[in-house]
Design a protein that fits this description.
This protein has about 300 residues and is an alpha/beta fold. The protein has helices spanning about 1-5, 10-20, 25-30, 35, 40-60, 75-85, 90-110, 125-135, 150-165, 185-195, 220-230, 235-245, 260-270, 285-295, 295-300; strands spanning about 70, 115-120, 135-140, 145-150, 170, 205-210, 215, 250-255, 280-285, 305-309. The chain is about 50% helix and about 15% strand. Strands 3-4-2-5 form a 4-stranded antiparallel beta sheet. Strands 1-6-7 form a 3-stranded mixed beta sheet. It has a 3-stranded parallel beta sheet with strand order 9-8-10. The longest helix is centred in the first third of the chain and has 21 residues, at about 40-60.
């Protein structure tokens, strides 16, 4: 609400999203009811709108000093990144995210599943356990943080095996669906149809893909990536590694929370990148907008910032 009240650019994003959806999503974000806002058909475009409003508020203050080296987003955030990169316009991006949320909710109701975060096991070990239990890897968030997904019984067996194999923690996630797993396949056909109907453009800067951890540089790659990521693993560790290896030393996370910044901090602290100086900032409200705008981040760093959402 503070962003809406203090930044014309942020207000424009919220107002445009309301117009695109033909409803006052902004009022729901500010005033609830919370139970409605938590429904995926509303929460996904709400997170997208907030992330893009943060980005536009910083851009309004010339806080980005030109184009970033690349953009990236984790799962839903990939849609925001594609809008920032010009591969999708806001209207198509918001409609796709709303449809994605609706289809994911329907798939979750058709095939209920669960997810769990495994802390303290390496990727190879978790992959072996998944192959033995029928669970699937949904997010590789770092060297020792991997999210698994799938049928509830399969995930429960995998959690038990991870604990036996030495995981420090195995945390059940508060979700109703098995996101980024094959249980989302009922949503894939509908989403593919929506993606084929949307207009895509070649991005102005590379977008680092969730499914491949490689840069998207064409409209067709962008469309194919969004089709693939729904049922495939988000390779966040590899995506961040690609950016750091490419010389990026400054990251700005846009939107609610600091989850991605925390993951990047842990990734950059691993032996592979310990000699790199990585700066991470977050833009989530007017005070952080001004903090980043005044930080001189863009001129101080060897690599240009990578907006994240």
């Amino acid at each position: 609400m503070e962003l809406y009240q203090t930044s014309r650019a942020a207000k424009d994003v919220f107002d445009q999203v309301d117009d695109i959806l033909s409803m006052s999503l902004t009022d729901m974000i500010f005033n609830g009811p919370e139970d409605e806002l938590k429904k995926t058909a509303y929460s996904q475009p709400a997170i997208m709108a907030t992330s893009l409003a943060c980005y536009k508020a910083l851009e309004e203050l010339d806080g980005l000093a030109g184009q970033p080296t690349a953009v990236a987003g984790h799962s839903l955030g990939e849609y925001s990144s594609l809008v920032v990169a010009g591969a999708l316009d806001l209207a198509d991006g918001v409609r796709l995210v709303q449809e994605r949320g609706k289809l994911m909710q329907e798939a979750s109701e058709l095939h209920p599943g669960s997810m769990a975060a495994i802390i303290g096991l390496d990727e190879e070990t978790v992959e072996e356990i998944c192959s033995e239990t029928g669970a699937e890897m949904a997010n590789v968030n770092g060297d020792d943080q991997i999210v698994i997904s799938g049928d509830k019984l399969c995930v429960a067996r995998a959690v038990d095996m991870c604990s036996i194999r030495g995981a420090r923690k195995a945390i059940a996630l508060a979700v109703n669906g098995a996101f980024h797993s094959s249980l989302m396949s009922p949503a894939q056909e509908g989403l593919a149809s929506a993606l084929d109907s949307a207009r895509f453009f070649d991005p102005s800067v590379p977008v680092i893909a969730n499914a491949t951890s490689m840069p998207i540089t064409s409209a067709e790659q962008a469309r194919d990536e969004l089709k693939a990521q729904l049922c495939n693993c988000v390779k966040w560790k590899q995506s961040v590694g690609w950016m750091i290896d490419g010389g990026v030393s400054s990251f700005i996370e846009f939107g609610p929370g600091r989850v991605l910044g925390g993951l990047i901090k842990r990734i950059s602290a691993t032996p592979s990148y310990r000699d790199r100086h990585i700066e991470i900032l977050n833009v989530t409200d007017p005070s952080t907008v001004h903090k980043v705008a005044e930080s001189g981040l863009n001129g101080a760093s060897a690599g240009r910032p990578v907006p994240l959402s």
